[in-house]
């Protein structure tokens, strides 16, 4: 782990845990973080300017990436899952998230538990996508039934991804 200019610990290789800060659960820290994010950074201003000048259609690009992932996930799920974690951070379309959620449910049953790296990404994505969607009671029940299996895993990074 290393520390960046803001005093944040970075370079954590566990998914979903890229940065940690001292007192990150403090209400004052949360308010300060929200107030800082209101002032748009120079980097984000430059990015918006570049997108406007380059005439990029971000939604079409996201749709293209989604289509590629959808085709590749059946054959090369071990390669696609880490990228899918990052894709879900920018994906805003509920239909795409719902479709990926259903694909992951099928993949979760097919991928053996011995494939710990894939299972780490699968449980993280299932939990994240369930939080983004409005799940049915059956979906919540299914998720609650598989979570204990992942929490009992001998691999720390699978337990961490589950939490």
From TrEMBL:
InterPro entries: Huntingtin_fam (IPR028426). GO terms for cellular component: cytoplasm. This is AAEL005242-PA. It comes from Aedes aegypti.
């Amino acid at each position: 782990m290393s520390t960046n200019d803001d005093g944040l610990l970075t370079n954590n290789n566990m998914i979903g845990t890229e940065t940690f800060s001292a007192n990150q659960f403090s209400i004052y820290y949360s308010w300060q973080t929200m107030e800082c994010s209101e002032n748009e950074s120079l980097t984000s201003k430059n990015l918006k300017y570049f997108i406007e000048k380059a005439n990029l259609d971000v939604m079409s690009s996201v749709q293209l990436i989604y289509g590629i992932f959808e085709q590749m996930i059946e054959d090369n799920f071990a390669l696609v899952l880490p990228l899918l974690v990052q894709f879900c951070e920018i994906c805003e379309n509920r239909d795409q998230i719902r479709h990926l959620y259903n694909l992951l449910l099928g993949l979760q049953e097919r991928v053996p538990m011995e494939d710990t790296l894939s299972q780490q990404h699968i449980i993280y994505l299932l939990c994240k996508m369930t939080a983004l969607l409005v799940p049915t009671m059956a979906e919540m029940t299914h998720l609650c039934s598989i979570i204990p299996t992942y929490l009992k895993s001998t691999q720390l990074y699978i337990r961490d991804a589950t939490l």
